[in-house]
Amino acid sequence: MKYKDLPKIDLHCHLDGSVRPETIIDIARSEDIKIPCYDVYNITKELTAPEECKSLDEYLKRFVIPNLVMQSKESLRRITFELLEDCAKENIKYIEVRFAPLLHVNKGLTISDVIESVISGIKDAEERYDIKGNVILCCMRFMSADKAVEVVEAGAKYISKGVVAIDLCGAEDYEFCKKFIEPVALARKYGYRITIHAGETGIGKNVLEAVELLGAERIGHGVFIKDCIEAYNIVKDKKITLEMCLTSNIQTKAVDEVCNHPIYNFYNDGIKVTVNTDNRTVSNTNMTKECQVLFTEFNITFNDYKQIYLNSVNAAFVDLETKEVLRSYI
Q1: Is 46 an annotated catalytic residue?
Q2: pTM recorded for the entire structure
């Protein structure tokens, strides 16, 4: 099977984890930004998390360098365009690009500047390639609830103009959901869809609270519902879609090896699973590789893949007309 030719959808892809190493060097030079090295081989080593990564916290350190060069309108627009260009070349038909606006205001940009730049990059790619994209705004869990409100408020005017959802991400603490009840409730009021990183680092109860307290429609990762029956049942019963990321889950030690990843067990039990990249550069992956892992490690059939693809279509934060187009590809 030619995995590259399969139609694909990526619902869980971080912009700052998917920057081309060459682009980081180019922007650093043109904007006079200091980075550890200026050759592709060594900067790639700096950006890519090793398979023997000890934890999610260690994995997250790989985002420091990309964010240094994501502080101008031009760089954000370019990096976004290049991400969608790379995706289009492997037959990704739809992508939801997520990023935390407050990580990109260190040199004077406003939250609106950041959002508009990313949306512009998506539109540039849509004009040139057969791909559609939307934006998910991330609120970092280490920041205050007030900061999350700031992002929600600033992004509200872009809903239906490129912005579709809000997310909470970063290092995962126990019971983090309680801190963000009010900002996420405000986001729902404005019309944001809700997806929450939860259950990535051994805390299945966080998935339960993300659904019960925050109204999550989708869960980023959700691996550890396997160890929390209440979380497992609510995901299954409410048909909450899991945005699963095989390669990064190995690196962050959510799973020790691919063959032990619960994605196929979840799928066989009727849970709505999807396959995604998480971070193309940090995890040295793409959707073609993730699909290949699915087929080779779990011996899935094309009909299995078709159902997982359709799970992504059904869960996508996009209008019905676009969903019909996406269904037609498979």
Answers
A1: no
A2: 0.96
